Amino acid sequence: MRVDIWSDVVCPWCYIGHRRFEKGLAAFEHSGDVEVVYHSFELDPAIEPGQATRVLEMLSAKYGMSVAQAAQAEDRVAATAAADGLGYTVDRAVGNTFDAHRLMHLAGDLGRADALLQRLYKAYFAEGGSVFDAESLAALAGDAGLDPGEARRVLDDGSYADAVRADEDQAREVGIDSVPFFVIDWKYGFSGARPAELLTEALREAWAAGPSSGEPAASGPSPAR
């Protein structure tokens, strides 16, 4: 069985949703037979490479709220993350994530996608570090078991740009407009950081339904409703 997940490395609910999916998958009796495939999704592809905005300033401008209100909203997300055992700091910036997604495709080819995604999430949300510049990304790739030199080559030569765009095109074709978005064996699709128990239930229902046709059906009924 296969689970396809669209996410962005600066999306707090993707961060929380990833942890909950891990827990839900661990409780699934056939977890060893599940292939997880990560797909690229940029929350704000219009951000210029090299540009970074502090997260409270970004939220204030985007949603028309005061910085104090943005801080309160972030505090609520931090509390949710903490309940799932995750570190979370508001002292971070928002930037262009296209290069991080390119690096995720390299990691996927090497069987290290989950390890890199976890390292990127921790670096950004728990440590407040950069996941935007080539030097930081190459170092984080090394932490995740990739060759930093190979990572830097990919970042410098534009590799995997087409793969990122293909993921984003597929998301539009399937109708995905928010992340995290989970597609289980092309039977059920749903968005959001669902509780781990509901994710386990979704996996069990998809498994019981039998082999997939392999056709995208992200708008189909969700067992996690």
- Fraction of residues in β-strands: 5-15%
Helical/strand content category? alpha+beta
Quote the average pLDDT: 94
How are strands sequenced across the largest beta sheet?
2-1-5-6
CATH second-level architecture? 3-Layer(aba) Sandwich
CATH topology: Glutaredoxin
Let me know the largest β-sheet. Answer: 4 strands, mixed
Written as H for each helix and E for each strand, in order along the chain, the element string is EHEEHHEHHHHHEEH
The tally of strands reads 6
Question: Total domains, how many?
Answer: 1
> What is the end-to-end distance?
21 Å
Rg over C-alpha atoms, rounded to the nearest angstrom: 17 Å
The helix count comes to: 9
Q: Report the principal-axis shape.
A: globular
CATH class annotation: Alpha Beta
Model regions low in confidence, pLDDT < 50 over at least 5 residues: 217-225
Summarize the structure.
By secondary structure, the chain is an alpha+beta fold. Helices cover 51% and strands 12% of the residues. The protein has a four-stranded mixed sheet with strand order 2-1-5-6. Strands 3-4 form a two-stranded antiparallel sheet.
Report on this model:
This protein has one domain (2-208): Glutaredoxin. The protein is built from nine helices and six strands. It has helices spanning 12-26, 55-63, 67-83, 98-109, 113-126, 134-143, 148-157, 161-174, 196-208, and strands spanning 2-7, 35-40, 52-54, 93-95, 181-184, 188-191. The strands form two sheets. Strands 2-1-5-6 form a four-stranded mixed beta sheet. The protein has a two-stranded antiparallel ribbon with strand order 3-4. Helix 1 (12-26) links the parallel strand 1 and strand 2. Helix 4 (98-109) runs antiparallel to helix 5 and helix 6 runs antiparallel to helix 7 (148-157). The relative contact order is 0.19.
